[in-house]
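dumping this here before i forget
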Amino acid sequence: MHLYRTHKCGEPCISDVGKQVRISGWVHRKRDHGGLLFFDLRDLSGITQVVVDPKSPVHKIVEQIRVESVVTVTGKVIKRPDENVNRKMTTGEIELEADTVVIQSSADILPFPVADEANVPESTRLSYRFLDLRRKKLQDNIILRSKVISSLRRRMTESGFNEFQTPILTSSSPEGARDYLVPSRLYPGKFYALPQAPQQFKQLLMVSGFDRYFQIAPCFRDEDARADRSPGEFYQLDIEMSYVTQDDVFNAVEGVIAGVFREFSTWKVTETPFPRIKFDDAMLLYGTDKPDLRYDLQISDVSDIFAASEFKAFRGTVENGGVVRMLAVEGISDKSRKYFDELEVFAKESGAKGLASLIFTASGETKGTLAKVLSQAEKDTLKDRVKAGPGFTLLFAADQKSIAASVMGKVRVKLADQLSLIQRDIYKFCWITDFPMYERDPETGQIIFSHNPFSMPQGEMESLETKDPLTIKAFQYDIVCNGVELSSGAIRNHRPDIMYKAFEIAGYSQEDVDKKFGGMIRAFKFGAPPHGGIAPGVDRIVMLLANEPNIREVIAFPMNQNAQDLLMNAPCDVTVKQLQELHLRVVTPQ
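structure:
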């Protein structure tokens, strides 16, 4: 018989009754029924109940075992009495009558219970992540992650893609987030950077002739945590293809993503091809470039109605280049004044100057903050714009376009949650296309790249030379699911002349481009195929499939919100010797 086990803990079944078996695992729970001891033994496969007779020589050993100790049990499989069968367990028809119990490792008193899904502070969970990972919910998430990655690899390979690995130590480049820098021992004062993405390398692979690449790629960005973004590092399904249009990329990715979601969930999945929404339309209709399409609330632009209105506050906003956005909602017309006051407070916290309302009650009465300041003709025009009838409420935000869009987008999400409008058990995908190539930095007022600096501008060189940069669109796209951005992608700028011009508009000289992107720009000068790609986030895919609100629940060893690894104590101090080897000294901020 094997030293540790003949079966895993989840394997013994009714057909094994009478057999002598050996299992090893963690003591999950213990129970004393008047001298008759029961304990559950757990491993990744499941749980088997072990019974110890009071007269057994191992009774005293089991009495003193703490939960989460690791033990090996040898005994005979017996059938449970019918009244004790547990139909919720795969081993629920049997139990193991212990002959010998060997303690492989004793557990100290636990900082929190593993057997129960108790509400434990996240800092404690992350400090003892090895215990946290013993809980079934987390183990299921991590196993799901492994299976999803295997499925992604298989689907990509079957689609004719080849997997390549790209460097982890590379050069710093401006790609939208802060780099993690690694000092060089051999070259004092110089630094490597951990890749924010394998962007340049995968494009170089296209230039080298490998026209279908993918990688489950680790990426590193020094940015703040969010519920759907882990600080420090994350993984993405990195993809690049040669001789493709935007449609070709969509077709390749949709089959893989939809297939994975159907494989690992019983929820409905958007049929392919996924809907396509232009960036400007998404910002207008949903107030975000990550729209949740599981509910129908849409925002309307009513600036034209208020441009000639006697209501000076809104008319003035429009005359000064701003907009008025409106959201039509059913189900809140009978709410109290306090409800609308709280909704306005939320809007102000989201950046609005206020949130005006026009309420058409079921009885035909008109109420709200705009009821007395608008003419009947204006009210009728607003109602007709969205086909609003009795019981509708119209909500308004007047501000600069970006602020009004953002505020109304957040109000839309809040109302959908409050009114239970969100469809359940469904994954709603869409593509957001036609992103602006440039935007204005709100702090400096300079023209900067709005998305990916390596994207091909629509209209190519002609657009860059003849158009206002803020009106130029790029062949850039995002794939969004249930309000979560899974990925950004683009058709790349593969021509050096267009790249120099694109970066010039963003304030980079030709020398800057040659210095920052020397390898790639040099490669393009020796013949580069048209190419494009995308990189769906693996962590976010698993988060959606596991129906988890926080991305840390699908990562084995995540950092906390402050980018700290509480288990391994990172970041940490290093020795003076280490600093001297790297020709560094620490200057503590005042």
